[in-house]
Amino acid sequence: MLSNHLSDGIGMARVPWSQLPSSEEPEGLSNVDDELMAAARSLAGVGAPVESLDYEVIENYAYREQQAQKGKIWFTYTVMVKWFFALLIGVGTGLAAVFINLAVENFSGWKYTATFSIIQHTYFAGYLVYVLFNLALVFSSVFIVTHFAPAAAGSGIPEIKGYLNGVDTHGILLFRTLVGKIFGSIGSVGGGLALGKEGPLVHTGACIASLLGQGGSTKYHLNSKWLHMFESDRDRRDLVTCGCAAGVAAAFRAPVGGVLFALEEVTSWWRSHLMWRVFFTSAVVAVVVRSAMSWCKSGKCGHFGSGGFIIWDISDGQEDYSFQELLPMTIIGVIGGLLGALFNQLTLYITKWRRSYLHKKGSRVKIFEACLISVITSTISFGLPLLRKCSPCPDSEANPGIDCPRPPGMDGNFVNFFCSKDKEYNDLATIFFNTQDDAIRNLFSAKTFHEYSAQSLLTFLVMFYTLAVVTFGTAVPAGQFVPGIMIGSTYGRLVGIFVVKFYKKLNVEEGTYALLGAASFLGGSMRMTVSLCVIMVEITNNLKLLPLIMLVLLVSKAVGDFFNEGLYEVQARLRGIPLLESRPKQFMRNMTAKEACKSQQVVCFPRVVRVGELVSTLRNNQHNGFPVVDQGQNGETVVIGLILRSHLIVLLQSKVDFQSSPFPCGPRGVLNSHKLSDFVKPASSKGKSIEDIQLSEDDLLLYLDLAPFVNPSPYVVPEDMSLAKVYNLFRQLGLRHIFVVPRPSRVLGMITRKDLLLEENGSSATMELQSSSVRGQRYNEEMLRSRIHPESSILDSLLIQK
Amino acid sequence: MLSNHLSDGIGMARVPWSQLPSSEEPEGLSNVDDELMAAARSLAGVGAPVESLDYEVIENYAYREQQAQKGKIWFTYTVMVKWFFALLIGVGTGLAAVFINLAVENFSGWKYTATFSIIQHTYFAGYLVYVLFNLALVFSSVFIVTHFAPAAAGSGIPEIKGYLNGVDTHGILLFRTLVGKIFGSIGSVGGGLALGKEGPLVHTGACIASLLGQGGSTKYHLNSKWLHMFESDRDRRDLVTCGCAAGVAAAFRAPVGGVLFALEEVTSWWRSHLMWRVFFTSAVVAVVVRSAMSWCKSGKCGHFGSGGFIIWDISDGQEDYSFQELLPMTIIGVIGGLLGALFNQLTLYITKWRRSYLHKKGSRVKIFEACLISVITSTISFGLPLLRKCSPCPDSEANPGIDCPRPPGMDGNFVNFFCSKDKEYNDLATIFFNTQDDAIRNLFSAKTFHEYSAQSLLTFLVMFYTLAVVTFGTAVPAGQFVPGIMIGSTYGRLVGIFVVKFYKKLNVEEGTYALLGAASFLGGSMRMTVSLCVIMVEITNNLKLLPLIMLVLLVSKAVGDFFNEGLYEVQARLRGIPLLESRPKQFMRNMTAKEACKSQQVVCFPRVVRVGELVSTLRNNQHNGFPVVDQGQNGETVVIGLILRSHLIVLLQSKVDFQSSPFPCGPRGVLNSHKLSDFVKPASSKGKSIEDIQLSEDDLLLYLDLAPFVNPSPYVVPEDMSLAKVYNLFRQLGLRHIFVVPRPSRVLGMITRKDLLLEENGSSATMELQSSSVRGQRYNEEMLRSRIHPESSILDSLLIQK
């Protein structure tokens, strides 16, 4: 009785699969890959089309052939090219960053110089010039984005994060996106909107890396054949990781922060040998940026100067802190968590609304929207300081280091704006009517007690927070780092003012509290930890504040996590980018793999398939991977591998493998017909679709033998493995398809640690290797025949036959 | 013809496995897990026994039952306990570090105070006191290690690295090791040997973490039941990672460096949500250490002071550098690579020799050896400065900040030792006759041009290098960081002297070159990149040197990699710890999984096995995992899972599952007999062995049904997957066993990204989940019967039957 049930369970494995409910119509079955994404997309309104990336090595015949041919020299060459590319990415990103900074600072410099010189005469003309200057820049930015590079809008970090998680959003890594990002962010940042250039720089770095990886832009004929090295998604991913790190390193002049950002925030996987290369890229960026800055020091670059790259040196800030101060610091953390979470939520709603209503109406609405926001921002930043009463300058004898009011044409604190007396300054103008970099520097500045009134800071906080929320999601390149630092440092300084007032301690610096506030807001919004901490330390150049920054980040992230996800996760979800978190959900432990894929049906192809059938199946579904099964002697089926839609389309397009016989072809026909590079997916992610394929009626009647083109060894899991384990496999190896298969009937061997410790020389395995690698065409027929023994692998036996 | 061969290949899957050459004697087959390790061990001489760890979730019945019972509250509780443990690890490691530093500095302080006061009268008596003091400390250290905690010898980092790579070395994480490490390193460092306390601190942190994870030490009755939370190797691994980071954070007061060290150097895998916890632990350590130091500031802690923790503030060092200087810096990198690689090679030879000849002779030889080295070290460090002529002090008017000679009882430069005149100092004594921390501080010091003569530095370099090589591998706790920094900063300062001489630039600081030298030697020896860079920046508190440190590290690592592996890899290999590198070797791409395990044979158990057979099989081999197969209706076999040796031993010991019937038992018998915790491996890694099991003759005739205890879903790979892909799977998921199985006959489903994006609520999968989780015993029989439908998983059908 007992064994009856048991054998039921096991015997099931023997039920012909045509009788199972899920396999009644083998050709009508479907494995859905992109339906959910389509659903997510429709939920999210418009949104760019997304596609999964394939980080798995497709070990098809062409790959094996290439591997067998390549020797040690090829390997060394590859490594050298990879390092050379890391160098190029560093140099390219560094130069792009220098260019953007140069342009932004010069535009801003001209703008403020012109405005300040005009307001000596009339404020209204100054206002007009200021508004028009900003409007022109913002218009150029939004025009470039809407008409030339739509993927350049926003920060780009959610998309890059998605890319490295395994989801390709169309168009994010194109050459036009790169151009749009660079020029667009010059316009949007130079135009004084409440956004930053750091996110776009990360995207720029990733674009440069990706373009290098594909050997340039094909569309614009800027590509070079000999650079065609990186043919798998995997290699490109490594390059894009380097590019991300380079972007952060360039944006913040924080090389270590860049490596950590790439590691913690962006990538979903990590290999320690890659760290070394990423590190190198960051170092190159640091050197490039530094060299450019020292070259510009003599004034060759206009307004671009040492203050150019955001680096707010507060090394003369607060050195020591008492335990008493931990309370206000914790409060800063809590405020950061709350405001950050609120920011994420508000931007989510606004972006949703924008996508559903506003942006559907076309480019004109987008342009109008950005221009309107520009005018509003200019008006507020010009108008509000006018309403503010000026404060008298601090006593210059008691504070010898202070220059008040600041001389015209200089950066610094104590801006004289609409002040009636000479020895007065406008504290609101100091932060509002200024570039954001300078404003932050002023907020962080030490030894400037009571420079800002609580009223001004509060006004600024409310207005700027609102502007940042509203600006988020317009069709311009926009980073959230600098606005976040602005918001955070404002309330941080506010708390600092109260601490100075109540604790009555002299060694408390308001600037230090501003820094902690900045860290807390970024932590509460972006939810980064180590990388943010290192970036904050690197940009402020003060290591002593590290424990405090850590504390504030811990609190703000914990508070923020209580309410919602991080900014990039929220935005990625909104854009229909299905990110996989690093750990499986708890309930997955109680689910099996089979339960997870019960709702779908699998579309299988036989080994030799009629072309017409292939085409109709491809047309009838959107799935990207198909198992290929073949019949054994006794009518049993065996799975010989996985074929990708993109590979099928390549085969259908080239037509050279079509055959009239419905039986498997010999190796002669296929061995030289395709190289690995034929199957390389174009980096633009929009390969040919099945609709592009034109086949004659005659072609449709021919057959195609899929065996040489399948990936013969996709990862498989037994049907009753828990979904949590499957999740780990999928996520950690960056897979796209996993086969759920019945329990195996026997174990041919066990792989343990020792089997993987083989040395190339001196192990018997090497001998085996020589004879079993796929180099069929070099052997004569007898050699070939002798190799077909029962133990040779199935793929080999498929390929090497007469 | 063609299809003939094909069907041969496929039909092979149908050959009954008893006919395959590798399975003629199913019971006599063997899957070797530890033979290579035994071989490695014999190669390495003695060496502690090692065992693979199991980071995979064993989804046996007990686990499934536990998972089904635990709700959200349990999950929240677990998370809270994990954070609480991170806090405890931080506090514990911080306190241990403070204690070690306090003791070392006080011992050293007393030693030097006594010696300096005696040498005012007679140098010989001073020498004797110095030697004896050192000897006593070293003797205590080596005595503790040899007689109490043998696993505490050395730095411990290779073992911890191995642990986190998946190899458990016996005894490294015991309570006695912790005690031995703490007190041993006080003795060895206080005794003035050429070694540091940083490696041991990392080991200390890991021990504390591991002991917390197992709820205290069982042997010393310090354990607590309610802390028994972390029952899998996986959870313990997370804790040990936190411990490592805490150790580095405490040793260098470098919290970010600690996180990165744990990430880059130690762990073999990484999950980004763990980073957050590791970061928290480091932050706690920083706060603890800081608080202790500020508490001690008032002089309550004797000689322990602000200079205690190695942190060599060179924030007043060189600010700027010219491109000209890149050449000498590159040279420093090359020297570092060469000397580092040489160090690794020499220590390898010496450790080999020591293991093969010296240490075989027992503890006495080890004690004698350490004492001899102590006497030699003392003699050299006391004697050599005697031979050196004193130099006149620099002009005190031109250098107002310099105190020369240094007042007695103070730390600092310009030691007056065996000088005839008052206004003289002995440059060799300043670095040699001093604690290493002070010596490094002196070498790094800025504004001290020409303090050291090239001759002195060269003498010191040669002598100290030799001492460091000879001391490496003695039976005392020993870190290589501080000796490395000593060696590196010496030749760095040498190069600096030449740069000052030839470039004739005033803003060149010899101290900055010393720092770069230190970075280069560590890079050349340990081959770390990002973490070392951050540690160097954090201990010198100078961010501006970051690009230079990066450059030097890149060069030295590249040069070193040309010759050999990193220090820890070399040492791990020597100790028979089979580390898996992060990437598969190139030739593995051309090998299949089956080829890799061809040499071994698989020992399988049937589902119901006779106890006697089980015992004899376990006695006859050393393998740790066995596939369990069962017979289907038609005599076909099906693999129902993997059973671990350790679990079998638990079953054999408890005897409650023995049955007289040779048929599978019903679920009643087993459901409540074992809890998950019964199968937990003791953290000491020396569980029961099969030799400890005593069974009567009657017992041996009984049967045991293994089905409820197997891991039903080990990871499987098809036989012809390339070994490179298998390697990635094994390495990235931290596995211990992978089954190599024949190609599947069909695909039941495909798992793609969308299947893993399930939400717990609102998905149809949740409903399935409720009915298929293993909670058999709560259902009545009818419920049970209704669940046995053909689609239920095999394990369930095995367990839930009458």
From TrEMBL, chains A, B:
It is found in: Membrane. Its main location: membrane. It is a multi-pass membrane protein. One of its GO terms (molecular function) is voltage-gated chloride channel activity. This is Chloride channel protein. Belongs to the chloride channel (TC 2.A.49) family. The chain crosses the membrane at residues 83-104, 124-145, 239-262, 274-293, 326-347, 457-475, 481-503, 515-539. It comes from the Eukaryota. The lineage of its organism: Eukaryota, Viridiplantae, Streptophyta, Embryophyta, Tracheophyta. PROSITE patterns: CBS (PS51371). SUPFAM superfamilies: CBS-domain pair, Clc chloride channel. Keywords: CBS domain, Chloride, Chloride channel, Ion channel, Ion transport, Membrane, Repeat, Transmembrane, Transmembrane helix, Transport, Voltage-gated channel. InterPro entries: CBS_dom, CBS_dom_sf, Cl-channel/antiporter, Cl-channel_core, Cl_channel_pln, ClC. Gene3D superfamilies: CBS-domain (3.10.580.10), Clc chloride channel (1.10.3080.10). Residues 710-766 form the CBS domain. GO terms for cellular component: chloride channel complex. SMART domains: CBS.
